[in-house]
Design a protein that fits this description.
Layout lengths: L35 H13 L3 H17 L3 H17 L3 H15 L6 H17 L2 H18 L2 H17 L3 H15 L6 H18 L2 H18 L7 H12 L3 H13 L5 H18 L2 H13 L7 H8 L3 H14 L4 H17 L3 H18 L2 H17 L3 H17 L3 H17 L3 H18 L2 H15 L3
Helix pairs in contact: 1-2, 2-3, 3-4, 3-5, 4-5, 5-6, 5-7, 6-7, 7-8, 7-9, 8-9, 9-10, 9-11, 11-12, 11-13, 12-13, 13-14, 14-15, 15-16, 16-17, 17-18, 17-19, 18-19, 19-20, 20-21, 21-22, 21-23, 22-23
Length: 477
């Protein structure tokens, strides 16, 4: 269960995604010679090498042996491992059954680190239900249990969960330092793969929500070097899907699509993770100009339970179906009315579509809302989007001087984040604003830079638009 694009993946990729049997690495001799600890170790190895079925079978055997020999603490820890096994196969009721089993096993035991791991699993369920306040309280308890018992895994998980909850509650300045601290702790020997994987996954998820591509890139590079040096790997489920999104953001579209296709082909991934990967395939195709392929991918993502927006709306816009695009993005925004970060990912498309429809007032309202969200959350990515949106509105309203100022700030933020596609699109719009103010030399400079980047990325429609703009500017039209 690790990213195929990362070097440690070569440990199992001898062929086209085909893995060797886990049983080939079992100790020789009859299975009856293995102890509960051996089966537990096999279960742990299996979950991180993509052998979920064999991992489940080994953990079930370990659980039975621990219960039979009267070791409830060990049995409870194996039961919590089985929670992950069943979540990865989308058997959520079965996973919850094993969680309740672990809880019952620990009820009569004195407080120990096992209770912290039980609470950590419960916290993930709380976050899944959107109960951030309760999850935040549990996260603080988890950290304290870890500190009391000298369990570094629990301490790192406690920091991770606190950071995640605080960011999602809008307290970014409090939450991000905790996530950074947790990631630093994860990049040290002795931490288990589950704690490392959860920490990386939740950090990547937060960076995705905040459009904090630069921070995500830094931690991804750091953890890849760590995994390469130690031979460990901890990417499962949504981690790999978010990693694809990071590849797309930094312009590595071919590698992003390759990894997304591998996720979709692996039966070990549940539908929601495949949906996220399919969504990224649609985004790559849309940016490349393959509108039919993008539309098919977005519809497939929707079938898998992932919101296909703003991709679907932008495809409709590219097809020239402006009214349909406007209705599509309006419906999407209404669907996430109570989630400001999800709205922030949709509002830039809302501005673009409204302006294409000539509805400057709707675009202005969307831009104002985006600015408010960016101010409250304070991430560089949201600020970049919040500079570009009002810049586009100002240009459409005839105030090209103000537009140029906002757009220049926006593309500089995108460059800082190493998001080349967004930066190039902002520069192209900046060129149009500069041209409207009579600054043709500066406009040509920006259009030429945008054209170069867009061509290198393979963003065919936008590259053609940049080429036309540059020709018109140089011709003095």
């Amino acid at each position: 269960m690790r990213a195929p694009s990362m070097r440690p993946a070569k440990l199992w990729r001898g062929g086209r995604g085909r893995r060797p049997s886990l049983s080939s690495r079992r100790p020789s001799g009859p299975a009856s010679l293995l102890q509960a600890e051996d089966f537990e170790a096999l279960g742990e190895a299996g979950i991180w090498t993509g052998h979920n079925e064999e991992s489940t079978a080994s953990r079930l055997r370990a659980y039975e042996d621990y219960v039979r020999t009267g070791r409830p603490r060990q049995a409870a820890m194996v039961a919590l491992g089985l929670v992950l096994n069943y979540i990865l196969r989308s058997s959520h009721s079965v996973a919850m059954g094993w969680f309740q089993n672990a809880r019952r096993l620990l009820e009569g035991e004195t407080a120990g680190p096992e209770h912290g791991h039980l609470s950590a699993t419960e916290t993930l369920f709380l976050f899944e239900r959107g109960d951030l306040d309760t999850g935040l309280g549990r996260a603080r308890e988890i950290f304290e249990i870890g500190r009391r018992h000298g369990d570094r895994n629990l301490q790192v998980l406690g920091l991770t969960f606190q950071g995640f909850a605080l960011v999602r509650l809008g307290r970014v300045r409090e939450g991000m330092p905790l996530l950074d601290e947790a990631m630093a702790g994860a990049l040290s020997n002795g931490l288990g793969p589950l704690a490392t994987g959860i920490t990386y996954c939740q950090t990547l998820s937060v960076c995705h929500d905040l459009l904090e591509y630069r921070r995500a890139l830094e931690w991804s590079d750091a953890i890849e070097r760590y995994w390469t040096a130690t031979g460990t790997f901890c990417l499962v489920g949504a981690c790999r899907a978010h990693h694809v999104g990071l590849l797309v953001a930094r312009g590595d579209w071919s590698k992003g699509e390759e990894e997304a296709r591998m996720i979709c082909a692996e039966e070990s991934f549940e539908a929601s993770h495949q949906g996220l990967a399919t969504l990224e395939i649609g985004e790559i195709r849309r940016r490349s100009g393959d509108l039919a392929g993008a539309e098919a991918a977005f519809h497939r993502a929707h079938e898998l339970g992932t919101m296909p927006q703003p991709g679907i709306a932008l495809v409709l816009l590219a097809w020239g179906k402006v009214d349909a695009a406007k209705s599509s993005i309006a419906d999407a925004l209404a669907e996430v009315a109570g989630d400001r970060l999800k709205r922030a990912r949709l509002l830039p498309a809302g501005v673009e579509i409204a302006l294409a429809a000539g509805d400057v007032e709707t675009a202005r309202r969307a831009a104002i809302e985006l600015e408010s969200i960016a101010t409250d959350f304070g991430s560089t990515g949201l600020l970049a989007a919040a500079e570009c949106a009002p810049g586009a509105v100002a240009h459409a309203g005839g105030d090209s001087t103000a537009a140029a100022q906002r757009l220049r700030s926006g593309y500089q933020h995108w460059l800082e984040l190493e998001a080349p596609y967004e930066a190039a699109r902002a520069r192209l719009l900046l060129a149009e604003a500069l041209r409207a103010t009579g600054k043709r030399s500066a406009a040509a400079l920006e259009a030429r830079a945008a054209k170069s980047v867009l061509e290198r990325l393979g963003a065919v429609p936008e590259a053609r638009r940049a080429a036309r703009a540059l020709e018109e500017i140089e011709a003095g039209a």
